[in-house]
């Protein structure tokens, strides 16, 4: 009986050592991750500072906005897809005109 108890105790000690090793590995990975994250944040902060210093100051004058604009081509004009006159009286007339324009009766009859 004592041999079995000793074997169980030795097995527990071995398991505890394995667990300690595992947790120490986890701690070291987390520490390495945190160190690398801080390094990256510091690099990014420094690069942002360099960009801010390198940007020339832009100032606008009133003359910048008063210059005449010359287009190379005339702007495209598209017809309005929705007629401006949408009164109820004209809607019935518009439908009839549209049907006459197309020459087709598109209403379904049962």
TrEMBL record:
**S-adenosyl-L-methionine found in the keyword field:** no
Tell me which Gene Ontology terms the entry assigns under biological process: regulation of systemic acquired resistance
The main location is nucleus
Q: Report whether rRNA processing shows up as a keyword of the record.
A: no
Q: Which organism is it from?
A: Psophocarpus tetragonolobus (Winged bean)
Tell me which GO cellular component terms the UniProt record holds: nucleus
Q: Where is the composition biased (Basic and acidic residues)?
A: 86-104
Q: Which protein family is named in the record?
A: Belongs to the NPR1-interactor family.
Identify this protein by name. Answer: Uncharacterized protein
InterPro entries for the chain: NPR1/NH1-interacting
Provide an example Pfam family for this protein.
NPR1_interact
Subcellular compartments: Nucleus
Q: Where are the transmembrane segments?
A: none
- Which key words tag this protein in UniProt? Nucleus
The ranges of region (Disordered) come to: 74-110
Fetch the PANTHER family from UniProt. Answer: PROTEIN NEGATIVE REGULATOR OF RESISTANCE (PTHR33669), PROTEIN NIM1-INTERACTING 1 (PTHR33669:SF1)
